[in-house]
Amino acid sequence: MARITAGATMSHVPVVGRAIDTDQTGTDYWKPAFAGFEFSKQWIKDNLPDVIFLVYNDHATAFDMKIIPTFGIGCGEEFPPADEGYGPRPVPTVKGAPDLAWHIAQSVIEDEFDLTIINEMKVDHGLTVPLSLMFGKPTEWPCRVIPFPVNVVLYPPPSGKRCYALGKAIRKAVEKFDEDLNVHIWGTGGMSHQLQGPRAGLINREWDKSFLDRLTSDPDALARIPHIEYVREAGSEGIEMVMWLIMRGALGDKVEEVHRHYHVPASNTALGHIILETR
Ligand code: DHB
Ligand code: FE
Questions:
Q1: By alpha-carbon position, which residue is closest to atom 1 of ligand 1?
Q2: Nearest C-alpha neighbor of 168 from the set 103, 91, 113, 229
Q3: CATH code for position 81
Q4: Domain that holds residue 161
Q5: Ligand 1 contacts CB of residue 248 (under 6 A)
Q6: Which one of 12, 125, 261, 263 is the catalytic residue?
């Protein structure tokens, strides 16, 4: 039987990827941001999963205004890095896990979450930066990855409540898969940030800390946060954090926080990272 044993969340700021690609992680500016991932890089080596179910958002890269799925699931064999304007990042092509992905699609759709099935897609910084933060610069990613893009770019995005419930359906699906696989689920994006308009550069440490605290202790309360509160308190791009609730829903009731890192600023955002193990 497959099982979800751990979850991780992390911001996916594109310049963080650039710092890794150009070996700038040890500079005065970047050192404290990356220091918080030293634990995580060792932890993932010691707890390497077979598959990462990676919840992220596409930033008008694979999808443009023509078609934007609310929830998509990558069922293909592989997903190459996208060109976001400066050429593709020099990172390996992501290898998918089609058998598990199709199984999850079947189970979750039967549970009335209408996923879009994606067989071919390029993946942007939303997916590749978290992999680089955890694995550094390998020639191949050390495990398979199921990309799970969520629309948080164009209103209306899904509610936190819907995302949390979807996470629970994903857990149920994984536990019904008839192969002995260790699966991790990651929720990426966040934390508070706004990239445009008069409030560009907004960072709200108190709100971020409270979100991180409640991710372990009171996810039901987080699931009740309405869109307007994300926008008001965490900035227009803070809405990315609903994706963390998919991860949290998939971890079940009992989790232990084994690592946390919060750093301000990374570019003009708050960088937040947490690792939860199921108990
Ligand atoms: C930036 C872009 C993102 O997608 C994000 O989540 C955080 C920051 C940026 O362009 O700085
Ligand atoms: Fe983003």
A1: 13
A2: 113
A3: 3.40.830.10
A4: 3-278
A5: no
A6: 125
